[in-house]
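User: Can you fold this complex?
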Amino acid sequence: MLLELNNVSKSFGAVAAVSDLSLTIAEGEVLGIMGPNGAGKTTLLNLVMGAIPLDKGTIRFAGEQINGLRVSTICHRGVGRTYQIPQPFRHMTVLENLLVGELYGGKQHTMKKSRELAQAVLERVGLASKSSTPTESLGLLELKRLELARALSLQPRLLLLDEIAGGLVESEVEALKEILNELKRSGQAMLIIEHLLSVLFGLSDRILVLNFGKRLAEGTPAGIIHDPLVIEAYLGQKHAKDVIPPIEELHESLTSTHHSTLSLHDSQHSVEQSAKHASPIHKGQAIGIADEPLLSLSHVSAGYGEFQALFDVSLDMHPGEIVALIGLNGAGKTTLIRALTRRLPLREGDIIFKGSSIAKKPAHSIADLGIAQCLEGRKIFPELTVLENLELGAYCQRARQKRQETLKMVHDLFPILAERRNQLGSTLSGGQQQMLAIGRALMARPELIIFDEVSLGLAPIIIDELYNAIVEINRQGMTILLVEQSVQRSLDIAQRAYIIEHGRIVLSDTAAELKQNTDFRQAYFGL
Amino acid sequence: MNIRERLDVKSASQQSEKQKHNSLYWISWLIIGLVGIGLLFVPFIADQYSISLAYTFFLYVALAQSWNLLGGYTGLVSLGQAAFFGLGAYTTALLLTLTGLPFLVAILASGVVATVFAVAISLPVFRFRGIYFAIGTLVLAEALRIWMINWSVTGGAQGINLPLASLPDPNSFYYIALALAAASTGIIAFILHTKLGIGLRAIRANEDAAQNMGVNTFRVKLFAFAISAFIAGVAGGVQATYQGTVEPYSTFAVSWTITAINIVIIGGVGTLFGPVVGAAFATLLDQALQNYASIHLMITGVILILVIRFLPAGIWGQAHKLLERRGIINALRRLSHNAART
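Assistant: Here's the predicted assembly.
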């Protein structure tokens, strides 16, 4: 056995993060780990890597006990790990990032040899053209590739991947999958933690489902999705059905002999090409909705320093609509929201909200006007209780008087927030924190809510719950702007969508039309 | 164009990029060499006062480089450089008074003693990170100073007066300090291009991730700590002989550490020539404010705040950025490339 965990336990205070867990990975095998947020998945990786000491049990790698060794020694034995949130070495170039692994990893090559090997790894993950780029100027997809490349530069016998596809849109995920499949074909043993089921199920030989640090189930991908325990705890009824087709698809791609980096380039091309095809199609500006827009951006340009991030962006939102904003990482979605919420000055254009311009209003007045936002990364106040977090949401004038009424509405929407009202924000699980963030946004009694990446890093069953809540919020009359990595999910609940590429709106249409648009599907679903 | 051809073109362009880089490399070393040769002749034309200013400048460069290796390149903000400096000064003073060792041997021994001390304290202080490391080193340096005040072997609070006969003549201090500044800058320039340099920068960026990539962070930090202590120790030895006397209050003064940090921040943290630019700035400022000792610190403080606010990359760092943005660095590269070809 390459990796062998025997009865491993780890507690943080009173919380058992991993309890009495045993598992094995053979040479060349890919083990997938799934489970709800807080199930102990990342703790498991940290234990294997030696980043935190274990309380009980043993971990053996290639027959030798490794628990108790220092992290760098475990790395030298042949374990390479990627981080869920990319942790590049800043102020260093992409190539220099990899040099660390080549020079200090298990093999410890000379400088000259290391440079050659590092360049070869970059070719493999499709980052060759970025070798002398400083890591500060990489986009998320590139950072994820860099994470993978750094782990590969160690030439590990076992690769630990923590949410490597998290935060990427579908076509980017496809590109990453190609690389991972190529690795698997080359016989690389892997331990994968992943919320994205198509990646997890496509790649894994075996899947282990964790819940509260314990083994909930284990089996082949096909077996696991029919396991009633797993469906109940993690997948939810709806997704159990959705997962089946991707498996067959992946088996196909596994048997194909396509070279990964080449097809990667191809898929990048197709995104650009379809964007070009797509640009002339501008229709469906206001389908069936005749009234005044609630929010209207006209010809907005904005940027950072010498870098212009938005070009001539126009966008309308009508009262009661759910509008999705779709784009790859770095396309300008977050910049657009920053401009809209006045955290970034406009260079040109205007923003009209309820008939009057807000382009010159200060950022803090936005909440008073009736625009609330649920920020990427949750950003709740960890040292305040759940109730205090919510009350702070009602800080603005318009919401203060109706605070109790709104609070009741939020508690109805998310009963768990009422149940845990006196707990500190930091003690909530990821999904609950997201609910709190949404609840806090609602407390401001907004007319328009911006949801930025609400589903990031959450289990499918939790995401379903959140999306149901968003639909419910919309039903109560609030207008919603949805920014989401998962194109499929956002189109399922949105009426209309705007597609942004390289800082320009290239397409806008109804959700139903977009689902039929082949260029769009090719670019964003990677089909 | 097929893939094979595309790759060939790419590697060809990388080749020329490399050549450009190489020729720039040689041109810059040529300039540095010319400046170095020029500096050798300064004592023949300059007056005694300018020479003493130059001495201070060189000493500052060495101290700042030693701090920059730790604070700038490795992210270990040490507030204990004065301990290495003071130990070096006392070592040279003791060796020259008690033994007949030549001056050069004594200052190298100073470096060794400071290094040994650094290695000895590494085990406890490396357990701390960030601000705690800074406080830990500060406390150790202060403890050492208080020890020296009370230790009779080193003359207690009176310190030691060096025997005049063993000291070099004033003019040669210029060359000794010049060599010290050049060597410390050279050592760091060299380190940056080695495995150690890559490891240090990785640790500064993210110590946990560096461990994950196989970097034995304790050992790599220890190397940086030892080299930094060696440079500071030798600088202390040089200063002891220049001064002709050592005593705990000024030799172990925390102001040596603070001066080094000021210089690096003003010049540019984590840059090779930032400490040189910063040292020049500090020397001239000392000079301009020498009659206003009471407000000297205050003005230095204000300048520090202004630099941090408006030039976060330091004078050299900012200049480098501006040149790059204006395309001047690229133009220089092209120019030197053409010059190298003809």
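Strands of chain B lie at 160-161, 245-246. DSSP finds 16 helices and two strands in chain B.
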